[in-house]
Design brief:
Shape: globular
InterPro entries: Ferritin-like, Ferritin-like_SF, Ferritin_actino
Number of domains: 1
Radius of gyration: 18 Å
Pfam families: MiaE_2 (PF13794)
Protein name: tRNA-(MS[2]IO[6]A)-hydroxylase MiaE-like protein
Distance between the termini: 42 Å
Strand content: under 5%
Organism: Kribbella caucasensis
Number of helices: 11
Number of strands: 0
């Protein structure tokens, strides 16, 4: 990919470059761990069809990782170095929210990861057009939503008592995911600076932060409702 003029200008700014690399790094490691988790969840799938469906989703996540990795290489960055700062916090989040069964794993992939992905899409509003396009492509609908909604709703229909447990799990996940995403943004000066903006690049003021949180909350509520769970 040949950088556009606007992209070239943006990457001439060391602070911007550091922020873009951090964003790509955290997303790349997130997709790599998503691949690992979904492949592991496939072992718990109750049917061969479910196992195959999850294997396909895992393959899609790995393809997203490859796209992000290749973008970092295009920028002259070692992808492993770019991902390294995010290994400990993301691994800690996943260890702390390890699902106890197949259904909790599905809800985590849809609700927990969905909120984190929404947050990073919001950050993508502040990066150059090519990087933003890649982020939006990576977080496009991969078929996961339809699969998860179908399986979770069917399970609740068969055993309505599952609804309460999974709703509590979903609410826990949203709190953990939002805290984790905010913590990563705060801990990385480059990402915090990207959100804050600069003289020639507007950032988020208090009103904009409020609107962003409203969008995140509404998207979470829509996902829980789609699953047949109380937000």
């Amino acid at each position: 990919m040949v950088p556009t003029m606007s992209e070239t200008t943006a990457f001439d700014d060391p602070a911007y470059r550091a922020a873009a690399v951090d964003l790509l790094g955290v997303l790349a490691y997130g997709e790599l761990t998503a691949f690992e988790r979904i492949a592991e969840d496939a072992k718990l799938a109750p049917t061969l069809n479910d196992k195959a469906q999850l294997a396909q989703l895992a393959t899609t996540e790995f393809g997203h990782f490859v796209q992000l990795r290749d973008r970092l290489v295009e920028l002259g960055v070692d992808p492993m170095d770019a991902m390294q700062p995010f290994v400990t916090p993301l691994d800690a989040f996943h260890d702390h929210t390890a699902p106890s069964d197949w259904l909790e794993g599905l809800v985590k992939a849809y609700v927990g990861d969905g909120l984190a992905n929404d947050f990073y899409r919001e950050i993508a509003s502040f990066v150059d057009a090519d990087t933003r396009a890649l982020v939006l492509e990576v977080f496009g609908d991969s078929g996961q939503a339809e699969f998860v909604v179908d399986r979770v709703r069917a399970a609740i229909e068969e055993d309505p008592k599952l609804g309460g447990r999974l709703a509590l799990w979903g609410r826990r996940l949203v709190g953990e995911a939002l805290s984790q995403a905010q913590r990563i943004a705060a801990d990385r000066d480059s990402l915090a600076a990207l959100l804050a903006g600069s003289v020639d690049r507007p950032g988020l003021d208090l009103a904009a932060i409020g609107r962003m949180l409203t969008r995140l909350t509404e998207a979470h509520t829509a996902r829980m409702t789609a699953l047949g769970l109380q937000p």
